């Protein structure tokens, strides 16, 4: 065995420093100050769940309107197909 102590090169140290810096943000990603502020405000807002629930309900209403339109459109298409099939049988 060698009694020599391993000494990384300056290039290796620089590369490791870059990796260490990137590792800090690997999970959360880098957030801007405004994003961080938004998340802190959201965390501290006692009415956050009420606001979020209101947004969910608004989205649900929009989806229900879309569903209603699609169901009407589906019915019209079924009627059109039935008419077409009846006229082709004659």
Low-confidence stretches: none
Tally of individual helices: 3
Q: Tell me the number of structural domains.
A: 2
Instruction: Report the sheet with the most strands, covering strand number, pairing sense and barrel closure.
Output: none
Class based on secondary structure composition and strand pairing: mainly alpha
Distance between the termini: 98 Å
Q: Mean of the pLDDT scores?
A: 88
- The radius of gyration computed from the alpha-carbon positions, rounded to a whole number of angstroms, is 31 Å
The general outline is elongated
Beta strands, count: 0
The proportion of residues in beta strands is under 5%
What does the model show?
This protein folds into two domains: 8-44; 46-90. The longest helix has 42 residues, at 48-89. The protein has three helices and no strands. The model has no long low-confidence stretch (mean pLDDT 88). It starts with 9 loop residues before the first helix and ends with a helix. The protein is elongated, with a radius of gyration of 31 Å. It has helices at residues 10-24, 33-44, 48-89. With 90 residues, the chain is mainly α. Keywords: Coiled coil. Residues 53-87 form a coiled coil.
Descriptors for this entry?
2 domains, coiled coil, 90 residues, 77% helix, single chain, 3 helices, mainly alpha
Q: What's a concise summary of this model?
A:
The protein is mainly alpha-helical and 90 residues long. The chain is built from three helices and no strands.
């Amino acid at each position: 065995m060698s009694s020599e102590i391993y000494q990384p090169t300056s290039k290796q140290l620089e590369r490791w420093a870059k990796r260490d810096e990137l590792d800090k943000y690997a999970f959360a990603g880098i957030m801007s100050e405004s994003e961080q502020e938004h998340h802190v405000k959201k965390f501290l807002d006692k009415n956050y769940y009420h606001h979020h629930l209101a947004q969910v309900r608004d989205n649900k209403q929009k989806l229900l309107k879309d569903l209603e339109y699609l169901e009407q459109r589906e019915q019209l298409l079924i009627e059109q197909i039935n008419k077409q099939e009846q006229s082709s049988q004659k």
